[in-house]
TrEMBL record:
Assembly, per entry: Binds to PRPS1 and PRPS2.
Family: Belongs to the ribose-phosphate pyrophosphokinase family.
Keywords, in A-Z order: Acetylation, Nucleotide biosynthesis, Phosphoprotein
Cited InterPro entries: Pribosyltran_N, PRTase-like, PRTase_dom, Rib-P_diPkinase
Role description: Seems to play a negative regulatory role in 5-phosphoribose 1-diphosphate synthesis.
Coiled-coil stretches noted in the UniProt entry, renumbered to this chain: none
Entry protein name: Phosphoribosyl pyrophosphate synthase-associated protein 2
GO CC annotation terms, alphabetical: cytoplasm; ribose phosphate diphosphokinase complex
GO terms assigned for molecular function: ATP binding; magnesium ion binding; ribose phosphate diphosphokinase activity
Natural source organism: Sparus aurata
Pfam families per record: Pribosyl_synth, Pribosyltran_N
Ribose-phosphate pyrophosphokinase N-terminal domain sequence ranges: 9-126
GO terms classed as biological process: 5-phosphoribose 1-diphosphate biosynthetic process; purine nucleotide biosynthetic process
Amino acid sequence: MNHTKGGLVIFTANSHPSSRELGKRIAERLGVELGKVQVYQEANRETRVQIQESVRGKDVFVIQTVSKDVNTTIMEMLIMVYACRTSCARSITGVLPYFPYSKQCKMRKRGSIVSKLIASMMCKAGLTHLITMDLHQKEIQGFFNIPVDNLRASPFLLQYIQEEIPDYRNAVIVAKSPSSAKRAQSFAERLRLGLAVIHGEAQDAESDQVDGRHSPPTVKTTGAIHPSMEIPLLIPKEKPPITVVGDVGGRIAIIVDDIIDDVDSFVAAAETLKERGAYKIFIMATHGILSSDAPRFIEESAIDEVVVTNTIPHELQKLQCPKIKTVDISMILSEAIRRIHNGESMSYLFRNIGVDD
């Protein structure tokens, strides 16, 4: 059954077959067929997009999931959006459940804010609206000059905890670092569970020794500063020993985060929790990138189960590691598309969501 008004076209921009699965699920929920389009790589690795039906005056939704080749993923999205724009589509909404380069959203030494660059490119290509999910930093929305709907996967993960973990009342929500404590607190308050925070684990250290910006001047100059004044130096950080703030003894530990990619920190956190008496370890994350040997490390670790959503295809990783489970979030994405196309309010999808969620 078609649940939308006419003039809706849904395309999947990804040329990888496994990445089209989410688009098929969304189209099926909306009762429409996926738009006809060809996306492929030329022999010289250039991306070519050929739209095979009219989009003039229609609302186009381009669904793009991030494959292993993230840069090709971005180019496919940009070229398809631009093709729809030059074909006179009325509106072009990008549906990127996982926003690529979202970790590079802050200035690091002489680096760059790549998330801002990607946002500018998408807007320039012709995007008029963006639907995404659990941005790594909510401030990324400010990089766009178009409306951005940052949906949440937490209701689906909370439902999984309540339905699939039989003794979840004996669980404690764990933040594997102080930076993820707000997310963990949100889960703990909604489930009426305790909270624990791991402090002192290895952080992404940035050495100031190789950065000239922090080097002392080679020649003393007193022209601009009074001779008696000296610029105070910031005391360097010293990593404290690993500690767990909160009681996890004899309980199920549920570690929550937004992205799980390099699993070293999760494996280390699981070992620490086991040493402190936790008898089961679960990991809940929205985006399961699971790069490189992550499935093997998970399989060999003290982690009992890793639960991620299907914002990123990970069927191959699931074959390598049975501990990886998937939660389907196509329902909320299809509802967001329906509401935007029909001109309905989006506030229903954000009910009971606070600033820190």
